Automatic annotation (TrEMBL):
Gene Ontology CC: one annotated term: membrane
InterPro entries assigned to the protein according to its UniProt record, in alphabetical order: BphY/WalK/GraS-like, HAMP_dom, HATPase_C_sf, HATPase_dom, His_kinase_dom, HisK_dim/P_dom, HisK_dim/P_sf, PAS
Pfam family, one: PAS
Name of the protein this chain belongs to: histidine kinase
Listed SUPFAM superfamilies: ATPase domain of HSP90 chaperone/DNA topoisomerase II/histidine kinase, HAMP domain-like, Homodimeric domain of signal transducing histidine kinase, PYP-like sensor domain (PAS domain)
Organism for this UniProt entry: Hymenobacter daecheongensis DSM 21074
Length: 485
């Protein structure tokens, strides 16, 4: 039964009693006015009892309605209020009880529908938040930079794997701990907090500090950048800032580049100074009138060799500067007979072979097809590879130069008997200004440009240049060029 019907029935019952009482009194009064005779005391007693009965019944019904009617209205609302508060509270309740199919029950059912929609939206929102959190955690974990997040109280709330590795502490020992407390037993963190205490933040005029970590194998260099976190709206008694982010960026490559440039400038200075000093001394000997003609010819030949060496070095520097500027390599590609290229290259390095008493065996098939290449660039590459083979091979050894068809390419290889190159350096030797340990066999003072430029030339012609070598077993440098179709 609905609440509305209950109220209507209660009011109807009260009205019925009142009408009954009024009607009885009305008919009694009319009966007396018409001069009813023969009334006895018993009739008056009955009338009085009937009126009193109606009065008592009306009073009882009125009192009952006064007590019951508010209770019937308020009790379901009170239960609904309690259920809604329980759902809104920290309890696990997710629905309100639907007691009866009345108006309050309809309100409870409507509240349940709203709660169901809110729960569905909440689950969707939570799923999106968890997905976003997982993405952010994956991003933070995959960063190659160290990341340490401190809240406004100086507590560590985030530390990615790189930061943990640099600090030498697992994340479990950092998260939730005060940075000052951890710094008391962790020297790297103690050094990181010094710029924070000095308010050396990112974007100011003070350079960001660079730290070295000797306990790592390569002693990397990391630059520390500290950025403040802006708080949304600080409450009363709360600090205005939202904490700080400590970001450590690996600048080892830049440091290595600076060191390499310094070493390169020193090497180039030495390489330029040596031939210039030799040329200057040779010119002084030529100016001496006592120098005989044969000696003059030998000195002139030496001056020519030193000049060619200087021109080759300057040419390498020009090629590197053009490549760094993004200029395309100018090629004059045409059908090339590799036998002619090999002949010219070997004639060029013949004096160096004779000086070290080296032999050069060449295996060039007579049916070797022509290659699609630039004569000048290919000859330069071959001369550079032969010069390296001569430089690193011990005296009285045999070098092997071979050219064979290789699918739709022709492959040229130079095999020396030098100290060899360990596999971990096979890629590094083709980088510009590459420096290898002395144990690998790199000649001290080498500019480190020849192999890099050679690979650029071969790649521009559609070929490849690589090395096959092992420490103590010599080296084989190979390059390919497209065949003429």
């Amino acid at each position: 039964m609905s609440l509305k019907l209950k109220i209507r029935l209660s009011i109807f019952l009260l009205l019925l009693l009142l009408l009954g009482l009024g009607g009885y009194a009305f008919f009694t009064m009319r009966y007396l006015e018409n001069g009813a005779g023969g009334l006895e005391q018993a009739d008056f007693d009955i009338a009085r009892g009937t009126v009193l009965a109606f009065l008592v019944a009306g009073t009882a019904v009125g009192i009952t309605m006064m007590v019951r009617l508010p209770r019937m209205v308020v009790r379901p609302l009170h239960r609904l209020t309690v259920d809604v508060e329980r759902v809104a509270g920290p309890d696990a309740a997710t629905r309100v009880a639907v007691g009866k199919r009345d108006e309050v029950g309809s309100v409870a059912a409507a509240v349940n529908r709203v709660l169901s929609q809110a729960q569905a939206e909440r689950r969707l929102t939570l799923a999106e938040l968890f997905a976003e959190r997982n993405r952010m955690e994956s991003l933070v974990r995959s960063l190659d930079e160290g990341l340490l997040l401190l809240d406004e109280h100086g507590t560590i709330v985030l530390a990615n794997p790189v930061a943990c590795d640099l600090l030498g502490r697992p994340a479990a020992e950092l998260l939730g701990q005060s940075a000052e407390a951890v710094a008391a037993t962790c020297a790297p963190l103690r050094e990181w907090l010094v710029p924070l205490a000095e308010a050396n933040l990112a974007g100011d005029n003070v350079p960001d500090p660079v730290f070295t970590f000797p306990h790592h194998p390569r002693a990397p260099h990391y630059q520390l950048s500290i950025s403040p976190i802006e708080a949304a709206t600080p409450g009363p008694g709360q600090p205005a800032g939202g904490g700080h982010i400590l970001c450590l960026r690996n600048v080892s490559d830049f440091k290595k580049l600076d060191e390499t440039k310094s070493a390169f400038l020193a090497t180039i200075s030495h390489e330029l100074k040596t031939p210039l000093a030799s040329i200057n001394l040779s010119l002084m000997l030529l100016q001496n009138e006592r120098t005989d003609p044969a000696e003059r010819q030998r000195i002139a030949s030496g001056i020519r060799e030193e000049t060619q060496r200087l021109l080759q070095m300057v040419g390498q520097l020009i090629d590197v500067s053009r490549l760094d500027a993004g200029a395309d390599i100018k090629l004059n590609v045409q059908p090339v007979t590799l036998a002619d290229v090999v002949r010219y290259a070997t004639d060029t390095v013949r004096p160096q072979l004779d000086d070290k008493q080296l032999r050069l065996d060449m295996h060039l098939p007579e049916t070797l097809p022509a290659a699609h290449a630039d004569v000048e660039k290919t000859t330069w590459v071959l001369i550079n590879l032969l010069a390296n083979a001569i430089r690193y091979s011990p005296p009285d050894e045999t070098l092997l130069l071979r050219a064979v068809p290789w699918g739709d390419m022709v492959r040229v290889s130079i095999h020396d008997h030098g100290p060899g190159i360990a596999p971990e350096y096979h890629k590094r030797i083709f980088q510009r200004f590459a420096e290898l340990p002395a144990s690998v066999g790199q000649r001290q003072g080498s500019s480190g440009l020849g192999l890099s430029i050679s690979r650029e030339f071969i790649t521009a012609q559609g070929g490849q240049l690589w090395v096959e070598s092992a420490a103590g077993r010599g080296s084989i440098f190979l390059f390919t060029l497209p065949l003429v179709t």
